[in-house]
Design goal:
This protein is 43% helix and 19% strand. It is an alpha/beta fold. It folds into two domains: 272 residues, TIM Barrel (Alpha-Beta Barrel); 96 residues, no CATH class. The strands form four sheets. The protein has an eight-stranded parallel sheet with strand order 4-14-13-12-11-10-6-5. The radius of gyration is 20 Å and the shape is globular.
Length: 373
């Protein structure tokens, strides 16, 4: 399922191959966020053709709309979206505690009100596995408890205890339902999510205990939620040092180009983040010379593309002046162009990271690259 190909000699960076039932994915890998089965403004074909062989969608959002009854008629989320690659579905734990109203955590599960219509729902770890079975996700995620920043240790300990128990129940649910599933759905992978807030010993405990569970991979959750970079990378380092080396490691919701490079150096294999697509919709563009704001008057008459060193559809065909004009005029096409560009930038970054690890030059690459962002 996961094979390490090359390790860097000076850092913990590594390349690998992650095999799902719908494809082979080279790691490190960045997954664009298609929360409801679509990456905003782009088609699934464009995402795949850009080189993204796996994307992320969200169980919470898809459960609420269009609903599992609709997706079940198509046989899978993959069939529903027509995306040709693999799909990882987040369990929705973060969204429940950040979007839904009046979330109440109980030992059995979590009760919450939909942010769409206020209807009350109840998610258990077993129910979340069941939903993801219906979605037929290549990679399923356990239901976890997101503590949030600035919580006291007592709550962090309680939330971690629940997350650990839900991890065990998620694995049991996956194994129990496998025999009753069609043959094509028996190979769904399950990742567990380590937590522990910003307490070092809790992070260590979480990763250590989950390492003893029979999971396909491990995610590090609850980071990049407002803490300092120093704290984030310290928690990440502790988590990774207590996770199995032979399983993929997934840092959830991170991040900037520099964050990705630095996390790879610690041994992270998988990433997702809304940053490239959300920034694009707000006019912020990642380029070979750093981040730029297309709204800047500097680009009003610029005849060159946004990034002359970029080979994306936007930069090959349009000037920065045209893109800025379309953006300032609130044309949807400009958001498409900037989204294509930013995702191309992230994909190119990941390719360069993998190439530098393979060639033994990652240490120099990371040192030079991080200074740009």
């Amino acid at each position: 399922m996961f094979k390490i190909i090359k390790k860097d000699g000076l850092t913990a960076a590594r390349t690998g191959v992650l095999t799902t039932k719908n494809g082979t994915i080279e790691t490190p890998v960045f997954m664009p966020v298609g929360t409801i089965g679509t990456v905003k403004s782009l088609s699934p074909f464009e995402i795949y053709d850009e080189g993204f062989k796996i994307m992320l969608s969200n169980t919470y959002h898809l459960f609420l709309r269009p609903g599992t009854d609709v997706i079940e008629k198509f046989g899978s989320l993959k069939n529903f979206t027509e995306y040709k690659g693999s799909i990882l579905t987040d369990s929705g734990g973060f969204q429940i505690f950040s979007l839904a109203k009046f979330a109440k955590i109980k030992d059995k599960g979590v009760e919450f009100m939909s942010h769409i219509d206020g209807e009350t729902h109840f998610f258990t770890p077993e129910r979340v596995i069941e939903i993801q079975r219906i979605l037929d996700s290549d990679i399923m995620m356990q239901l976890d408890v997101f503590s949030g920043p600035d919580v006291k240790r007592e709550k962090a300990e309680k939330d971690l205890d629940i997350t650990l128990r839900w991890a065990e129940r998620s694995i049991e649910a996956k194994n129990r339902t496998a025999s009753a599933m069609p043959e094509k759905q028996k190979d769904n992978l399950l990742f567990l999510i380590t937590q522990g807030n910003f307490f070092e010993d809790l992070r260590e405990e979480s990763a250590h205990i989950m390492s003893g569970m029979d999971a396909s991979g491990y995610a590090i959750g609850g980071l990049a939620v407002g803490e300092s970079k120093k704290t984030m990378f310290r928690m990440l380092e502790i988590s990774i040092s207590n996770l199995p080396e032979n399983k993929p490691r997934y840092l959830m919701g991170v991040g900037t180009p520099a964050d990705i490079v630095n996390a790879v150096s610690l041994g992270v294999d998988m990433f997702d983040c809304v940053l490239p697509t959300r920034n694009a919709r707000n006019g912020f563009v990642f380029t070979s010379r750093g981040t730029v704001n297309i709204k800047n008057s500097l680009y009003k008459s610029e005849t060159l593309p946004i990034d002359p060193e970029c080979s994306c559809f936007c930069c090959k065909n349009f000037s920065a002046a045209y893109v800025r004009h379309a953006f300032m005029s609130r044309e949807i096409f400009s958001q498409r162009l900037l989204t294509i560009h930013n995702l191309h930038f992230y994909q190119n970054l990941i390719l360069r990271v993998r190439q530098s690890i393979e060639s033994g030059s990652f240490h120099d690459f990371s040192k030079n690259y991080s200074s740009l962002f």
